Amino acid sequence: MTTPSIIKPQIDGNIEKATQIYSALRQTRPMTKQNLHNYVKVFLGISVPDKRICPEHNSPLDYLWHTYTADFPKEQKSEGGISHARSGISNLKSEIPRLNADCIVWANRAGGKTELAAVATLLDCIFKPSCQVRILGGSGEQSSRMYEYLTAFLRHGFEQFLAGPALKARCRFANGSAVEVLTQSPMSVRGQHIQKLRCDEVELFDETVFAAAKFTTQSTSNLVAAMELISTMHRPYGLMQRVVASAPQLGTPIFKWCMFEVIEKCTGRTCSQCPLWSDCRGKARQANGYLKIDDCITQMRRASRAGFESEMLCKRPSLENIVFADFDPQIHVKPVDYDSNLPLYRTLDFGFVNPFVCLWIQVDADGGVRVIDEYIRSRATIDVHAAEIKTRTSVAEERVTATFCDPAGAGVNDVTGTSAVRELRTLGIATRFKRSGILEGIELIRRAIRSGDGQTSLVVSPKCPRLIEAMQCYHYPEHPTPAELPQKDGIYDHPIDALRYFFINHATPPKAASRRY
Protein backbone atom coordinates (compact mmCIF):
# COMPACT_ATOMS: atom_id res chain seq x y z
CA MET A 1 0.00 0.00 0.00
CA THR A 2 1.43 3.37 -1.03
CA THR A 3 1.18 6.53 1.04
CA PRO A 4 -1.11 9.17 -0.58
CA SER A 5 0.88 12.05 -2.01
CA ILE A 6 -1.01 14.53 0.18
CA ILE A 7 -0.17 12.71 3.47
CA LYS A 8 3.54 11.99 2.74
CA PRO A 9 4.73 15.62 3.01
CA GLN A 10 2.86 15.90 6.31
CA ILE A 11 4.57 12.76 7.69
CA ASP A 12 7.96 13.99 6.50
CA GLY A 13 7.27 17.32 8.15
CA ASN A 14 6.35 15.65 11.44
CA ILE A 15 9.49 13.50 11.34
CA GLU A 16 11.63 16.57 10.70
CA LYS A 17 9.92 18.44 13.52
CA ALA A 18 10.37 15.47 15.89
CA THR A 19 14.04 15.26 14.91
CA GLN A 20 14.50 18.95 15.71
CA ILE A 21 12.80 18.53 19.07
CA TYR A 22 14.95 15.47 19.84
CA SER A 23 18.09 17.41 18.90
CA ALA A 24 17.03 20.37 21.02
CA LEU A 25 16.36 18.13 24.01
CA ARG A 26 19.83 16.60 23.63
CA GLN A 27 21.29 20.09 24.07
CA THR A 28 19.03 20.96 27.03
CA ARG A 29 20.68 20.67 30.42
CA PRO A 30 18.77 18.44 32.88
CA MET A 31 17.61 20.51 35.85
CA THR A 32 16.43 17.79 38.26
CA LYS A 33 17.66 14.40 39.36
CA GLN A 34 14.79 12.67 37.57
CA ASN A 35 15.47 14.67 34.41
CA LEU A 36 19.10 13.58 34.57
CA HIS A 37 18.04 9.94 34.89
CA ASN A 38 15.72 10.33 31.89
CA TYR A 39 18.34 12.17 29.82
CA VAL A 40 20.92 9.38 30.25
CA LYS A 41 18.30 6.72 29.52
CA VAL A 42 16.95 8.40 26.36
CA PHE A 43 20.19 9.61 24.78
CA LEU A 44 22.66 6.95 25.97
CA GLY A 45 20.39 3.97 26.46
CA ILE A 46 21.53 3.51 30.07
CA SER A 47 19.04 3.19 32.90
CA VAL A 48 21.10 4.23 35.91
CA PRO A 49 19.92 2.39 39.05
CA ASP A 50 18.37 4.94 41.38
CA LYS A 51 17.40 2.93 44.47
CA ARG A 52 19.29 2.51 47.72
CA ILE A 53 18.75 -1.10 48.71
CA CYS A 54 21.13 -1.43 51.66
CA PRO A 55 20.45 1.25 54.33
CA GLU A 56 24.06 2.44 54.57
CA HIS A 57 24.64 2.56 50.79
CA ASN A 58 23.87 4.92 47.92
CA SER A 59 22.41 4.47 44.49
CA PRO A 60 24.66 4.92 41.43
CA LEU A 61 22.45 7.87 40.45
CA ASP A 62 23.40 9.60 43.73
CA TYR A 63 27.02 9.72 42.54
CA LEU A 64 26.10 10.93 39.05
CA TRP A 65 23.89 13.67 40.48
CA HIS A 66 26.63 14.80 42.88
CA THR A 67 29.33 15.12 40.24
CA TYR A 68 26.97 16.66 37.65
CA THR A 69 25.54 19.33 39.97
CA ALA A 70 28.84 20.29 41.63
CA ASP A 71 29.04 23.31 39.33
CA PHE A 72 25.30 24.13 39.45
CA PRO A 73 24.51 25.17 43.06
CA LYS A 74 20.83 25.82 42.30
CA GLU A 75 20.25 22.22 41.29
CA GLN A 76 22.04 21.01 44.44
CA LYS A 77 19.75 23.12 46.59
CA SER A 78 16.55 22.14 44.83
CA GLU A 79 17.23 18.40 44.80
CA GLY A 80 19.07 17.96 48.08
CA GLY A 81 22.39 17.76 46.18
CA ILE A 82 25.00 16.80 48.72
CA SER A 83 22.80 17.47 51.74
CA HIS A 84 23.26 14.90 54.50
CA ALA A 85 19.59 14.06 54.87
CA ARG A 86 18.50 13.50 51.30
CA SER A 87 21.47 12.58 49.16
CA GLY A 88 22.31 9.27 50.83
CA ILE A 89 26.01 10.08 51.04
CA SER A 90 27.32 7.51 53.43
CA ASN A 91 29.84 9.35 55.61
CA LEU A 92 29.14 13.08 55.70
CA LYS A 93 28.70 13.35 59.46
CA SER A 94 31.11 16.21 59.98
CA GLU A 95 30.32 19.86 59.37
CA ILE A 96 33.45 20.51 57.32
CA PRO A 97 32.50 23.05 54.60
CA ARG A 98 32.70 21.75 51.04
CA LEU A 99 35.55 23.58 49.30
CA ASN A 100 35.67 21.25 46.31
CA ALA A 101 33.68 18.53 44.58
CA ASP A 102 35.96 15.64 45.55
CA CYS A 103 34.30 12.31 46.17
CA ILE A 104 35.04 8.61 46.57
CA VAL A 105 33.16 5.89 44.74
CA TRP A 106 33.41 2.49 46.44
CA ALA A 107 31.40 -0.10 44.55
CA ASN A 108 31.33 -3.74 43.58
CA ARG A 109 32.83 -5.46 40.59
CA ALA A 110 30.53 -5.04 37.58
CA GLY A 111 28.89 -2.19 39.48
CA GLY A 112 29.10 0.19 36.51
CA LYS A 113 31.70 2.49 38.09
CA THR A 114 33.81 3.06 34.97
CA GLU A 115 30.84 3.45 32.63
CA LEU A 116 29.12 5.87 35.01
CA ALA A 117 32.31 7.95 35.31
CA ALA A 118 32.38 8.12 31.49
CA VAL A 119 28.78 9.38 31.55
CA ALA A 120 29.81 12.05 34.06
CA THR A 121 32.71 13.02 31.78
CA LEU A 122 30.39 13.43 28.79
CA LEU A 123 27.98 15.59 30.81
CA ASP A 124 30.85 17.75 32.06
CA CYS A 125 32.10 18.39 28.55
CA ILE A 126 28.69 19.11 27.03
CA PHE A 127 27.13 21.31 29.70
CA LYS A 128 30.18 22.93 31.33
CA PRO A 129 32.12 25.10 28.83
CA SER A 130 35.92 25.03 29.10
CA CYS A 131 35.85 22.10 31.51
CA GLN A 132 39.14 20.20 31.41
CA VAL A 133 38.76 16.53 32.36
CA ARG A 134 41.52 13.97 32.71
CA ILE A 135 41.18 10.21 33.08
CA LEU A 136 43.80 8.39 35.15
CA GLY A 137 43.42 4.63 35.55
CA GLY A 138 45.27 2.18 37.77
CA SER A 139 46.61 0.76 34.50
CA GLY A 140 46.70 1.85 30.87
CA GLU A 141 43.95 -0.65 30.13
CA GLN A 142 41.73 0.80 32.84
CA SER A 143 42.21 4.37 31.56
CA SER A 144 41.44 3.28 28.01
CA ARG A 145 38.26 1.50 29.12
CA MET A 146 36.68 4.69 30.48
CA TYR A 147 37.72 6.63 27.37
CA GLU A 148 36.31 3.89 25.13
CA TYR A 149 32.96 4.24 26.91
CA LEU A 150 33.13 7.98 26.27
CA THR A 151 33.91 7.68 22.55
CA ALA A 152 31.10 5.12 22.19
CA PHE A 153 28.70 7.64 23.76
CA LEU A 154 29.85 10.28 21.28
CA ARG A 155 28.77 8.02 18.45
CA HIS A 156 25.23 8.08 19.87
CA GLY A 157 24.64 11.42 18.16
CA PHE A 158 26.95 13.59 20.27
CA GLU A 159 29.51 14.17 17.49
CA GLN A 160 27.95 17.58 16.90
CA PHE A 161 29.50 18.80 20.16
CA LEU A 162 33.06 17.93 19.09
CA ALA A 163 35.65 20.30 17.68
CA GLY A 164 37.24 17.78 15.33
CA PRO A 165 37.52 13.99 15.44
CA ALA A 166 38.04 12.07 18.69
CA LEU A 167 41.66 10.89 18.81
CA LYS A 168 43.07 7.78 20.44
CA ALA A 169 43.64 9.36 23.84
CA ARG A 170 41.98 12.79 23.73
CA CYS A 171 39.09 14.73 22.28
CA ARG A 172 38.09 18.38 22.25
CA PHE A 173 34.67 19.99 22.27
CA ALA A 174 33.42 23.09 20.49
CA ASN A 175 32.68 24.84 23.82
CA GLY A 176 36.35 24.60 24.90
CA SER A 177 36.02 21.48 27.05
CA ALA A 178 38.45 18.60 26.58
CA VAL A 179 39.18 15.07 27.77
CA GLU A 180 42.57 13.39 27.85
CA VAL A 181 43.85 10.04 29.09
CA LEU A 182 46.88 10.15 31.42
CA THR A 183 49.33 7.33 32.01
CA GLN A 184 50.42 5.87 35.36
CA SER A 185 53.57 7.96 35.68
CA PRO A 186 54.50 11.08 37.66
CA MET A 187 55.66 12.82 34.46
CA SER A 188 52.22 12.36 32.88
CA VAL A 189 50.43 13.78 35.91
CA ARG A 190 52.71 16.66 36.87
CA GLY A 191 52.09 19.97 35.14
CA GLN A 192 48.37 19.34 34.69
CA HIS A 193 46.03 22.18 35.70
CA ILE A 194 42.53 20.89 35.22
CA GLN A 195 39.09 20.99 36.80
CA LYS A 196 38.11 17.31 36.92
CA LEU A 197 40.36 14.30 37.54
CA ARG A 198 38.75 10.86 37.50
CA CYS A 199 40.98 8.18 39.03
CA ASP A 200 39.71 4.72 38.14
CA GLU A 201 40.72 1.61 40.13
CA VAL A 202 42.65 3.60 42.72
CA GLU A 203 43.55 0.36 44.46
CA LEU A 204 46.05 -0.31 41.62
CA PHE A 205 47.70 3.13 41.65
CA ASP A 206 51.39 3.72 42.10
CA GLU A 207 51.86 5.68 45.35
CA THR A 208 54.08 8.35 43.77
CA VAL A 209 51.60 8.89 40.93
CA PHE A 210 48.75 9.24 43.40
CA ALA A 211 50.74 11.75 45.44
CA ALA A 212 51.42 13.84 42.32
CA ALA A 213 47.79 13.62 41.19
CA LYS A 214 46.59 15.43 44.32
CA PHE A 215 47.99 18.72 42.99
CA THR A 216 46.41 18.72 39.52
CA THR A 217 42.93 20.18 40.02
CA GLN A 218 42.12 23.89 40.05
CA SER A 219 38.76 25.64 40.19
CA THR A 220 37.78 28.42 37.81
CA SER A 221 35.17 31.16 38.16
CA ASN A 222 32.39 28.78 37.11
CA LEU A 223 33.82 25.30 37.68
CA VAL A 224 34.60 23.59 40.99
CA ALA A 225 37.73 21.42 41.16
CA ALA A 226 37.12 17.72 41.74
CA MET A 227 39.30 14.67 42.23
CA GLU A 228 37.17 11.53 42.06
CA LEU A 229 38.59 8.28 43.43
CA ILE A 230 36.82 5.24 42.01
CA SER A 231 37.51 1.62 42.94
CA THR A 232 36.54 -1.60 44.58
CA MET A 233 38.43 -2.29 47.81
CA HIS A 234 40.52 -5.41 47.42
CA ARG A 235 42.97 -5.07 50.29
CA PRO A 236 42.48 -3.79 53.85
CA TYR A 237 45.97 -2.27 53.71
CA GLY A 238 45.69 -0.79 50.21
CA LEU A 239 45.39 2.77 48.96
CA MET A 240 41.60 2.65 48.70
CA GLN A 241 41.28 1.60 52.33
CA ARG A 242 43.41 4.55 53.41
CA VAL A 243 41.47 7.16 51.44
CA VAL A 244 38.16 5.77 52.72
CA ALA A 245 39.46 5.82 56.30
CA SER A 246 40.58 9.46 56.01
CA ALA A 247 37.41 10.67 54.25
CA PRO A 248 35.45 11.68 57.38
CA GLN A 249 38.25 13.94 58.61
CA LEU A 250 38.52 15.60 55.19
CA GLY A 251 34.76 15.88 54.67
CA THR A 252 34.96 13.88 51.45
CA PRO A 253 31.69 12.12 50.58
CA ILE A 254 31.77 8.39 49.90
CA PHE A 255 29.29 6.96 47.41
CA LYS A 256 29.07 3.27 48.16
CA TRP A 257 26.96 0.61 46.52
CA CYS A 258 27.11 -3.14 46.28
CA MET A 259 25.70 -5.91 44.12
CA PHE A 260 22.16 -5.32 45.38
CA GLU A 261 22.04 -1.70 44.20
CA VAL A 262 22.74 -2.85 40.61
CA ILE A 263 21.12 -6.30 40.51
CA GLU A 264 18.04 -6.95 38.39
CA LYS A 265 14.62 -7.10 40.04
CA CYS A 266 13.92 -10.60 41.34
CA THR A 267 10.62 -12.10 40.22
CA GLY A 268 9.37 -15.65 40.15
CA ARG A 269 12.09 -17.17 42.35
CA THR A 270 11.65 -19.03 45.62
CA CYS A 271 13.73 -17.25 48.24
CA SER A 272 14.27 -20.30 50.46
CA GLN A 273 15.86 -22.19 47.55
CA CYS A 274 18.03 -19.32 46.25
CA PRO A 275 21.80 -19.54 46.94
CA LEU A 276 21.86 -15.77 47.50
CA TRP A 277 19.24 -15.86 50.26
CA SER A 278 21.63 -15.53 53.22
CA ASP A 279 22.95 -12.23 51.78
CA CYS A 280 19.84 -11.07 49.93
CA ARG A 281 17.00 -11.57 52.42
CA GLY A 282 14.59 -10.25 49.81
CA LYS A 283 16.62 -7.20 48.79
CA ALA A 284 16.63 -8.16 45.12
CA ARG A 285 12.83 -7.92 45.03
CA GLN A 286 13.19 -4.16 45.51
CA ALA A 287 16.04 -3.69 43.02
CA ASN A 288 15.90 -2.12 39.56
CA GLY A 289 19.38 -2.75 38.21
CA TYR A 290 20.90 -4.66 35.31
CA LEU A 291 23.17 -7.32 36.84
CA LYS A 292 21.80 -10.79 36.14
CA ILE A 293 20.91 -12.79 39.25
CA ASP A 294 22.22 -16.01 37.72
CA ASP A 295 25.59 -14.32 37.04
CA CYS A 296 25.80 -13.25 40.69
CA ILE A 297 25.07 -16.81 41.82
CA THR A 298 27.77 -18.16 39.49
CA GLN A 299 30.35 -15.68 40.76
CA MET A 300 29.49 -16.50 44.37
CA ARG A 301 30.11 -20.21 43.72
CA ARG A 302 33.39 -19.56 41.92
CA ALA A 303 34.85 -17.29 44.59
CA SER A 304 35.89 -17.72 48.19
CA ARG A 305 33.52 -16.29 50.77
CA ALA A 306 36.02 -13.60 51.70
CA GLY A 307 36.49 -12.67 48.04
CA PHE A 308 32.75 -12.50 47.37
CA GLU A 309 32.14 -10.29 50.40
CA SER A 310 34.94 -7.96 49.33
CA GLU A 311 34.32 -7.77 45.58
CA MET A 312 30.53 -8.00 45.36
CA LEU A 313 29.06 -7.07 48.75
CA CYS A 314 31.58 -4.30 49.53
CA LYS A 315 32.05 -5.53 53.05
CA ARG A 316 35.47 -5.36 54.63
CA PRO A 317 38.21 -6.30 52.16
CA SER A 318 39.44 -9.84 51.80
CA LEU A 319 41.48 -10.91 54.83
CA GLU A 320 43.31 -13.71 53.08
CA ASN A 321 46.68 -11.91 53.37
CA ILE A 322 46.08 -10.33 56.78
CA VAL A 323 48.11 -11.36 59.82
CA PHE A 324 45.32 -10.86 62.38
CA ALA A 325 42.31 -11.93 60.34
CA ASP A 326 40.32 -12.74 63.51
CA PHE A 327 40.53 -9.18 64.81
CA ASP A 328 37.02 -7.73 64.69
CA PRO A 329 36.43 -4.11 65.83
CA GLN A 330 32.90 -5.01 66.93
CA ILE A 331 34.35 -7.56 69.34
CA HIS A 332 37.77 -6.22 70.25
CA VAL A 333 37.20 -2.43 70.34
CA LYS A 334 35.39 -1.25 73.47
CA PRO A 335 35.68 1.77 75.78
CA VAL A 336 38.21 0.91 78.48
CA ASP A 337 39.70 3.48 80.82
CA TYR A 338 42.44 3.42 83.42
CA ASP A 339 41.55 1.31 86.44
CA SER A 340 43.54 2.18 89.56
CA ASN A 341 43.03 -1.35 90.90
CA LEU A 342 44.92 -2.96 88.00
CA PRO A 343 48.66 -2.91 87.19
CA LEU A 344 49.70 -0.44 84.49
CA TYR A 345 52.23 -1.28 81.79
CA ARG A 346 53.78 0.72 78.95
CA THR A 347 55.36 -0.68 75.81
CA LEU A 348 57.56 1.21 73.35
CA ASP A 349 58.74 0.92 69.78
CA PHE A 350 61.51 3.38 68.91
CA GLY A 351 61.61 5.48 65.78
CA PHE A 352 62.41 8.90 64.38
CA VAL A 353 61.46 9.06 60.69
CA ASN A 354 59.32 6.00 61.31
CA PRO A 355 56.99 6.63 64.23
CA PHE A 356 57.83 6.28 67.89
CA VAL A 357 55.03 4.31 69.60
CA CYS A 358 53.92 4.05 73.21
CA LEU A 359 50.94 1.96 74.32
CA TRP A 360 49.41 2.00 77.82
CA ILE A 361 48.13 -1.43 78.83
CA GLN A 362 46.46 -2.99 81.87
CA VAL A 363 45.80 -6.64 82.68
CA ASP A 364 42.75 -7.72 84.68
CA ALA A 365 42.45 -10.58 87.16
CA ASP A 366 41.36 -13.00 84.43
CA GLY A 367 44.36 -12.22 82.24
CA GLY A 368 42.43 -9.93 79.92
CA VAL A 369 44.65 -7.38 78.17
CA ARG A 370 43.28 -3.84 77.92
CA VAL A 371 45.02 -1.34 75.64
CA ILE A 372 43.78 1.96 77.07
CA ASP A 373 45.76 4.63 75.18
CA GLU A 374 48.37 5.23 72.48
CA TYR A 375 50.98 7.85 71.62
CA ILE A 376 52.44 7.79 68.12
CA ARG A 377 54.70 10.50 66.74
CA SER A 378 57.46 10.89 64.15
CA ARG A 379 60.47 13.22 64.01
CA ALA A 380 60.81 14.02 67.68
CA THR A 381 63.67 13.36 70.10
CA ILE A 382 63.63 11.01 73.08
CA ASP A 383 63.29 13.86 75.59
CA VAL A 384 60.11 15.07 73.82
CA HIS A 385 58.66 11.57 73.86
CA ALA A 386 59.59 11.09 77.53
CA ALA A 387 57.82 14.30 78.55
CA GLU A 388 54.67 13.29 76.67
CA ILE A 389 54.72 9.77 78.13
CA LYS A 390 54.97 11.09 81.67
CA THR A 391 52.19 13.61 81.08
CA ARG A 392 49.82 10.97 79.73
CA THR A 393 50.60 8.34 82.37
CA SER A 394 47.88 8.30 85.02
CA VAL A 395 50.19 7.43 87.93
CA ALA A 396 53.62 8.40 89.20
CA GLU A 397 56.58 6.62 87.60
CA GLU A 398 57.24 4.45 90.61
CA ARG A 399 53.70 3.02 90.33
CA VAL A 400 54.12 1.92 86.70
CA THR A 401 54.50 -1.86 86.90
CA ALA A 402 56.86 -2.05 83.92
CA THR A 403 57.83 -0.30 80.69
CA PHE A 404 58.79 -2.76 77.93
CA CYS A 405 60.66 -1.76 74.78
CA ASP A 406 62.32 -2.77 71.55
CA PRO A 407 65.63 -4.53 72.30
CA ALA A 408 67.22 -2.48 69.51
CA GLY A 409 66.81 0.57 71.75
CA ALA A 410 69.74 -0.64 73.83
CA GLY A 411 72.14 -0.26 70.91
CA VAL A 412 74.59 2.64 71.12
CA ASN A 413 74.12 5.37 68.51
CA ASP A 414 77.36 6.16 66.63
CA VAL A 415 76.57 9.90 66.61
CA THR A 416 75.30 10.49 70.16
CA GLY A 417 77.38 7.81 71.85
CA THR A 418 74.38 6.71 73.92
CA SER A 419 71.23 4.62 73.48
CA ALA A 420 67.50 5.28 73.61
CA VAL A 421 67.19 2.99 76.64
CA ARG A 422 69.94 4.89 78.48
CA GLU A 423 68.42 8.28 77.58
CA LEU A 424 65.02 7.23 78.90
CA ARG A 425 66.60 5.97 82.14
CA THR A 426 68.32 9.33 82.55
CA LEU A 427 64.93 11.03 82.08
CA GLY A 428 63.36 8.87 84.76
CA ILE A 429 61.78 6.11 82.64
CA ALA A 430 63.27 2.68 83.30
CA THR A 431 62.69 0.12 80.57
CA ARG A 432 63.31 -3.58 80.16
CA PHE A 433 63.23 -5.93 77.21
CA LYS A 434 63.53 -9.53 76.13
CA ARG A 435 64.90 -10.64 72.79
CA SER A 436 62.53 -12.81 70.77
CA GLY A 437 61.46 -13.73 67.28
CA ILE A 438 58.70 -11.86 65.45
CA LEU A 439 56.60 -15.00 65.00
CA GLU A 440 56.63 -15.72 68.72
CA GLY A 441 55.05 -12.36 69.52
CA ILE A 442 52.55 -12.62 66.66
CA GLU A 443 51.34 -15.98 67.97
CA LEU A 444 50.82 -14.52 71.46
CA ILE A 445 48.75 -11.66 70.02
CA ARG A 446 46.70 -14.10 67.94
CA ARG A 447 46.01 -16.18 71.03
CA ALA A 448 44.73 -13.09 72.84
CA ILE A 449 42.53 -12.15 69.88
CA ARG A 450 41.03 -15.61 69.71
CA SER A 451 42.24 -18.65 71.61
CA GLY A 452 41.75 -22.24 70.55
CA ASP A 453 38.45 -22.45 72.43
CA GLY A 454 37.16 -19.30 70.71
CA GLN A 455 37.65 -16.93 73.66
CA THR A 456 39.14 -13.45 73.41
CA SER A 457 41.34 -11.74 76.01
CA LEU A 458 42.20 -8.53 74.14
CA VAL A 459 40.27 -5.25 74.22
CA VAL A 460 41.46 -2.02 72.57
CA SER A 461 40.10 1.40 73.48
CA PRO A 462 38.66 3.62 70.72
CA LYS A 463 41.34 6.10 71.87
CA CYS A 464 43.86 3.95 69.96
CA PRO A 465 42.82 4.48 66.29
CA ARG A 466 46.30 3.86 64.87
CA LEU A 467 46.63 0.52 66.66
CA ILE A 468 43.11 -0.50 65.60
CA GLU A 469 43.93 0.31 61.99
CA ALA A 470 47.21 -1.59 62.20
CA MET A 471 45.47 -4.66 63.63
CA GLN A 472 43.25 -4.74 60.55
CA CYS A 473 45.93 -3.90 57.98
CA TYR A 474 49.15 -5.63 59.13
CA HIS A 475 49.78 -8.03 56.25
CA TYR A 476 52.13 -10.42 54.54
CA PRO A 477 54.05 -9.36 51.41
CA GLU A 478 52.26 -9.99 48.14
CA HIS A 479 54.65 -12.53 46.69
CA PRO A 480 53.75 -15.46 44.43
CA THR A 481 54.90 -17.76 47.22
CA PRO A 482 53.66 -17.24 50.81
CA ALA A 483 56.01 -15.30 53.07
CA GLU A 484 56.66 -16.32 56.66
CA LEU A 485 57.16 -12.81 58.07
CA PRO A 486 54.74 -9.87 57.74
CA GLN A 487 55.48 -6.84 55.59
CA LYS A 488 57.65 -4.14 57.15
CA ASP A 489 55.79 -1.22 55.56
CA GLY A 490 56.72 1.55 58.00
CA ILE A 491 53.02 2.25 58.66
CA TYR A 492 51.30 -0.66 60.34
CA ASP A 493 54.25 -2.63 61.68
CA HIS A 494 55.29 -0.16 64.41
CA PRO A 495 52.12 -0.20 66.55
CA ILE A 496 52.08 -4.00 66.20
CA ASP A 497 55.74 -4.21 67.25
CA ALA A 498 54.97 -2.23 70.41
CA LEU A 499 52.09 -4.57 71.24
CA ARG A 500 54.28 -7.56 70.47
CA TYR A 501 56.94 -6.38 72.98
CA PHE A 502 54.29 -6.27 75.69
CA PHE A 503 53.12 -9.83 75.11
CA ILE A 504 56.67 -11.18 74.91
CA ASN A 505 57.79 -9.51 78.13
CA HIS A 506 54.58 -10.00 80.08
CA ALA A 507 54.53 -13.70 79.25
CA THR A 508 58.04 -14.13 80.71
CA PRO A 509 58.44 -12.10 83.91
CA PRO A 510 62.00 -11.31 85.05
CA LYS A 511 63.80 -13.93 87.07
CA ALA A 512 64.06 -13.38 90.81
CA ALA A 513 67.58 -12.56 92.02
CA SER A 514 69.01 -13.56 95.41
CA ARG A 515 71.26 -11.21 97.35
CA ARG A 516 73.50 -11.56 100.41
CA TYR A 517 73.04 -9.19 103.27
Describe the structure.
The protein is α/β, with parallel strands linked by helices and 517 residues long. The chain folds into three domains: 28-257, 3-Layer(aba) Sandwich (Rossmann fold), CATH 3.40.50; 261-311, no CATH class; 329-507, 2-Layer Sandwich (Nucleotidyltransferase, domain 5), CATH 3.30.420. It contains 20 helices and twelve strands. The protein has helices at residues 7-26, 33-44, 60-69, 73-79, 84-87, 113-127, 140-154, 186-189, 207-213, 239-250, 259-262, 277-280, 293-302, 305-311, 329-332, 382-392, 420-426, 438-449, 465-473, 493-507, and strands spanning 103-107, 132-137, 170-172, 178-182, 196-200, 226-231, 254-257, 344-349, 356-363, 369-377, 402-405, 458-460. A seven-stranded mixed beta sheet has the order 3-4-2-5-6-1-7, sandwiched between helices. Strands 11-8-9-10-12 form a five-stranded mixed beta sheet. The model is unreliable at 80-89, 91-96 and 512-517 (pLDDT under 50).
How helix-rich are the residues, as a percent range?
25-40%
DSSP summary: helix tally: 20
Please give the CATH architecture of the largest domain: 3-Layer(aba) Sandwich
CATH topology of the largest domain: Rossmann fold
Q: Strand-residue fraction? A: 5-15%
- At the fourth level of CATH, the homologous superfamily of the largest domain is P-loop containing nucleotide triphosphate hydrolases
Question: What oligomeric state is this?
Answer: single chain
- Average of per-residue pLDDT values: 89
Radius of gyration, rounded? 29 Å
Main sheet makeup:
7 strands, mixed
CATH classification class of the largest domain: Alpha Beta
Looking across the biggest beta sheet, what order are the strands in?
Answer: 3-4-2-5-6-1-7
